[in-house]
Amino acid sequence: GVSASISLEDPNPRRPGVFGSNGAALVLVNSTKGVNFPDLVANIKIQQAWGWAQLSGALHDASGTWFGPATAGVFGPAQSSAGNNLGWAIAAGGFFKIPNTAGDTFGIQVSYGHGATGYVTNGVGYNFIRDSQQTFGIVTDAVFSNAAIAGTGVAAGATELTESWAIQVGYEHVWQPGLKSSIAGGYNAVNYNANATNIICTAALAAAGCNPDHSWYQIGSKTTWTPVANLDLSVDVMYTRLNGMSYAAAQVANPAIGGSGTNAGLTGAGIWSGMFRAQRNFWP
Which one of 92, 148, 201, 219 has the largest count of C-beta atoms within 10 Å of its C-beta? Predict the structure, then answer.
């Protein structure tokens, strides 16, 4: 009932990248060095009649190289290196059978990352556009400044690892054999310290209201009916809400940080989604 694993893994699927700035306004380019070393991932798990619980951790390559701003659509040569950075992440979770029920279950997972954001957010960045307005969040492993930023604590060559955390929970209820419903939700947050905020926004724009911290949450429900063995018919409904980064009007037209010239002011947006699924299982 107790198992453990350790692995070396390709970091790229969980690598949102390192963002670099030259210390001037509106210059932000995502870049990475390539793979310096694989991620080290370890896990320990206990599985019993009541369900299972596990604890896992990872060491992640968060290295990057800063490149000069684009000129005529072509990136300039590498200006400076962000060096070798080691990020890490940890997660704990479990799946539990509820006693004295027809088969109800409950699951939970909590995770935290420091320079290993992809292990918490799955490496996803968000950008919602609505009625000529947009809200977005920059997801990174780290941010790097090629030059000092006057009036701040940011020195030339400064690298700041990104902090992220998340929690997901879910409950499934069995109404009767062949009919069950679940409700699940999750919350993710990406946070930047003061130096990282100044690198992304620069001091002047930060004073104008730029804050790259952002979060998002999802909540949804799924009902599955199994009219005959190995045939599942299900309906999903989900709501997703992005509480995007705050940014100054001068930044909105800058494509380097996700802007496209749309109006400022939309720092949060939500969407509803739904899905009907018919699944035939040919193996029990």
Answer: 201
> SS3 for the chain, per residue?
CEEEEEEEECCHHHCCCEEEECCCCCCCEEECCCCCCCEEEEEEEEEECCEEEEEEEEEEECCCEEECCCECCECCCEEEECCCCEEEEEEEEEEEECCCCCCCEEEEEEEEEECCCHHHHCCCCEEEEECCEEEEECCCCEEEECCCCCCCCCCCCCEEECEEEEEEEEEEEEEECCEEEEEEEEEEEEECCHHHHHHHHCHHHHHCCCECCEEEEEEEEEEEECCCCCEEEEEEEEEEEEECCECCHHHCCCHHHCCCCCECCCCEEEEEEEEEEEEECCCC
Query: Exposure pattern of 148-158 as b/e (b: 16+ CB <10 Å)?
Result: ebeebebeeeb
Distance CA 24, CA 42 (A): 40
From residue 35, alpha-carbon distances to 21, 76, 125 in Å are: 21, 21, 21
Q: How far is CA 206 from the centre of its chain?
A: 23
Structure tokens at 137: 């969040």
- Say how many C-beta atoms besides its own lie within 10 A of residue 142's C-beta: 27
The predicted pLDDT at position 201 comes to: 78
Are 154 and 31 in contact, with CB atoms under 8 Å apart? no
User: Residue 56 is encoded by which pair of tokens?
Assistant: 């896992």
Q: Please give the model's pTM, rounded to 2 decimal places.
A: 0.83
d(C-alpha 27, C-alpha 277), whole Å: 44
* Cα of 100 vs its chain's centroid, Å: 37
Rounded distance between C-alpha atoms, residue 7 and residue 58, angstroms: 9
Distance of alpha carbon 69 from alpha carbon 198, whole angstroms: 18
Rounded distance between C-alpha atoms, residue 118 and residue 229, angstroms: 38
